[in-house]
Design goal:
Layout (H helix, E strand, L loop, with lengths): L1 E5 L4 H12 L3 E6 L5 E2 L5 H11 L3 E4 L6 H6 L1 H22 L2 E5 L24 H13 L6 E4 L2 E2 L10 H11 L3 E4 L3 E2 L2 E2 H13 L4 E4 L6 E2 H12 L6 E4 L17 H7 L6 H19 L5
Parallel strand pairs: 1-2, 1-4, 2-3, 4-5, 5-6, 6-11, 7-10, 8-13
Antiparallel strand pairs: 9-12
Helix pairs in contact: 1-7, 2-4, 4-5, 8-10
Length: 296
């Protein structure tokens, strides 16, 4: 079975490649650069040529324009990557009867605090990122056998000069720089490796349609950073209380997800906050060992 992973060099794409290969699948990674095959998601012909060349049994789309500032300043790009490209993928997969799994977002819910939102909860599209991602969901579900997963992932990527949230957080805490702790921004973040493993289990068990797949807990960014810092041994000396209202771009802040549907399909409980942080600690340690191998 050959799986085409679009966005294979990104934070999530890297984890999906690792998990797919661990399970014995043949993978072909596609991205703008540094992948096995190059794809330009704003070019319909580029997408079509990649699918024709690979002829995959399944397509997993882990690519997205996630930078809220860039989505706001360049809405056309946001819609082409987060919506139109997904529609092109879905249409091509539908024609060839190829299953598509599309990874979406949780940036849809406002004013609910730490509430959990299931797959039927009403959404609020308050910025270009949310609107374009939601349109991508609708386009991906053109075939009932396709899967759209809402999630909030955290992890490491290793791109020089372009840190992920966790890489920025680790660098900030290591340097002892000031940091704001948002106690009014709620998430159900899950580590990329945990997500990838659960995603393939979900597919094995016949999951389809729209599914939430994240931590089973809902917690504030403040709580997450405190747990992360404690696990990694970082003192929060320069931390201060902050609010999501301080940020320039309006965004959804009540991102907790109800994972009851996913857990029912999986037959096991998704990780809580403590398990997420433990997994991130182990992943970070593994990456450090790879980056700095011991001399023999």
């Amino acid at each position: 079975m050959t799986i085409l992973i679009v966005g294979s060099t990104g934070m999530l794409g890297q984890a999906i490649v690792v998990e797919a290969q661990r399970r014995g699948f043949k993978t072909v990674g596609a991205a703008r650069r540094n992948a096995e095959i190059s794809v330009d998601l704003v070019d319909d012909d580029s997408i079509a040529s990649v699918l024709l060349a690979v002829n995959p049994s399944m397509v997993i789309n882990a690519a997205a324009l996630t930078d809220l500032d860039r989505c706001t300043r360049f809405p056309d790009e946001a819609w082409r990557v987060n919506a139109r490209a997904v529609g092109v993928l879905a249409n091509l997969c539908n024609r060839s009867r190829t299953k598509l799994l599309h990874v979406s977002t949780d940036h849809y819910f406002v004013g609910d605090g730490a509430a959990r939102h299931d797959e039927t909860a009403p959404v609020s599209l308050i910025n270009e990122y949310a609107a374009s991602k939601y349109a991508g969901e609708e386009l991906a579900l053109v075939a009932p056998s396709n899967v759209v997963i809402r999630t909030n992932i955290v992890g490491f990527r290793g791109w020089k000069g372009q840190p992920t949230f966790l890489e920025w957080l680790t660098d900030t805490l290591t340097a002892g720089d000031p940091i704001s702790l948002f106690d009014d921004f709620y998430v159900s973040s899950i580590g990329t490796l945990q997500f990838a493993a659960a995603m393939f289990d979900l597919l094995d068990r016949g999951g389809d349609g729209l599914v939430n797949l994240s931590s089973r807990d809902v917690f504030s960014k403040k709580t997450f950073i405190e747990k992360f810092a404690a696990k990694f041994g970082f003192p929060l000396i320069e931390a201060r209380a902050g609010s999501v209202s301080e940020l320039d771009i309006p965004r959804a802040e009540s991102l907790g997800l109800d994972v009851g549907k996913a857990e029912s399909i999986l037959g096991w409980r998704l990780p809580g906050l403590g398990q997420v942080v433990d997994n991130l600690f182990d992943d970070h340690a593994r990456r450090q060992c790879i980056a700095s191998p011991k001399s023999s």
